[in-house]
Specification:
single chain; about 425 residues; mainly alpha; Na+/H+ antiporter like fold; two-stranded antiparallel sheet; 17 helices; 2 strands; about 70% helix; about 0% strand; globular; disordered C terminus; sodium; transport
């Protein structure tokens, strides 16, 4: 005999649904998302350098999709163009919120992190270009944008692990910088890595995005309507020659943040687990797998100008660009650093901005898709540079975290256990 419907619903709500809710909440935390990204990249590296490396290549290159729609793409391309569009949709929603109600709404408050993001993109690009021109390899200049991007998920995950007592203003500065960095990186992808442009599909994509925007602005939330529109917009953007992830950003920009039909928080809340738990790790798995060839192969890769150009851009260019731009702007304009921050904190954060992973690997694929040697060099460089930048940033910020922890302990010390910190006790002069 079948159970009554209410009982089935009650069982479902008490078991499966709470379990999924707990998993979703875990995937929304920065540390879990960063850990999954790291695990996926390490798994890809291990597989690509194992005796079964050919299997990894076969899986990555396996083609699936309707040929009639020109969507017969490899698994790796589906990860980069398809799944990553979910990540960029969430980025688009975040950008929209920052411009409407966040730090980017106030030009005076946003001036420093915006300038830092620009400086953190210009200096790495100049270093990469300078190295490849000086070594006589102008054919590599297509990769100038590889070291300009900061991986927001990875950087914030590292900061979340080590920042037990660091000022919250440091995270806000890094978040604003990374959001602007993502916006500029998207512009770079759309403008500089679009080789063939088909206006018909592009117009169709923009019209479909406009219809999607009109629907969400009117308060229509049904996935049966919005999901097909998003898929059509993505497919048309892909057919236009513009990288398909740009569709994700534009769709995210249409979502209302304020008003009766505000949906930004709700959509981001629902899609972040999919982005952090599936889209980004799967992309990292298929993007990071490179056959290094042992220590000798790694050493040979480090001798190539593409490799050390990217590493120098991430490890040196990013912190120099971010820190120097911030300092000069604060020194010679009315812009000022948050009162809770010291310049050494900003330097540690600037080092952390050198973690370039998701977008850097994506740009590397676009820049060297017809040059497999340079493509592999980019992967090695991005992984190496990101690890070095992360370790350097961790060393600086851990020392600062210890300083702020001692300050916190001194401010909260209650030696007589009366519930009032000693610093607030009235001072009693000796008789």
């Amino acid at each position: 005999m079948t159970e009554p419907q209410p009982l089935r619903r009650r069982i479902f709500s008490r078991t499966s649904w709470p379990e999924w809710q707990r998993i979703s909440e875990l995937l929304r935390t920065e540390t879990v998302g960063g850990a999954l990204l790291l695990i996926a990249a390490l798994a890809a590296l291990v597989w690509a350098n194992s005796p079964w490396s050919t299997t990894y290549d076969q899986v990555s290159d396996f083609v699936v999709g309707p040929q009639s729609l020109h969507l017969d793409l490899s698994i790796a391309t589906w990860a980069a163009d398809g799944l990553l569009a979910v990540f960029f949709f969430v980025v688009g929603v975040e950008l929209k919120r920052e411009f409407v109600v966040g730090d980017l709404r106030d030009p005076a408050r946003a001036a420093l992190p915006i300038a830092a993001a620009v400086g953190g993109m210009v200096v790495p690009a100049v270093i990469f270009v300078g190295i490849n021109i000086a070594t006589g390899h102008p054919e590599n200049l297509a990769g100038w944008a590889v070291p300009v991007a900061t991986d927001i998920a990875f950087a914030l995950a590292v900061l979340a692990v080590i920042a037990t007592h660091l000022p919250s203003a440091l995270r806000l500065f890094l978040l604003t910088l990374a959001v602007v960095d993502d916006l500029l990186a998207i512009v770079v992808i759309a403008v500089f890595y679009t080789t063939q442009l088909s206006f018909g599909p592009l117009v169709g994509a923009l019209v479909t995005i406009a219809v999607f925007g009109l629907a969400v602005q009117r308060g229509l939330r049904s996935p049966l309507l919005l999901l097909p529109l998003a898929v059509v917009a993505w497919a048309l953007m892909h057919a236009s020659g513009v990288h398909a992830t740009v569709a994700g950003v534009l769709l995210g920009f249409t979502v209302p943040v304020l008003g009766r039909h505000a949906a930004a928080d709700r959509m981001e809340h629902r899609l972040r687990p999919l982005s952090a738990g599936v889209a980004v790790p799967v992309f990292a798995f298929f993007a990071a797998g490179v056959t290094v060839g042992g220590l000798s192969g790694f050493g040979a890769a480090l001798s190539h100008p593409v490799t050390y150009g990217v590493i120098a851009g991430l490890v040196i260019g990013k912190p120099v660009g971010v820190f120097s731009t911030t300092y000069l702007l604060a020194r010679f304009t009315n812009a000022s650093l948050d009162d809770d921050l010291a310049w050494v904190d900003v330097f540690g954060m600037a080092l952390l901005a050198g973690i370039g992973f998701t977008v850097s690997l994506l740009i590397g694929e676009l820049a060297f898709e017809t040059n497999p040697v340079a493509h592999d060099d980019v992967k090695i460089a991005v992984l190496t540079g990101s690890v070095v930048a992360g370790l350097l940033a961790t060393a600086v910020l851990l020392s600062r975290n210890a300083v702020y922890r001692r300050i916190h302990e001194a401010e909260t010390l209650d030696a007589d256990d009366d519930g009032v910190p000693d610093i607030y006790q009235p001072r009693q002069d000796p008789p």
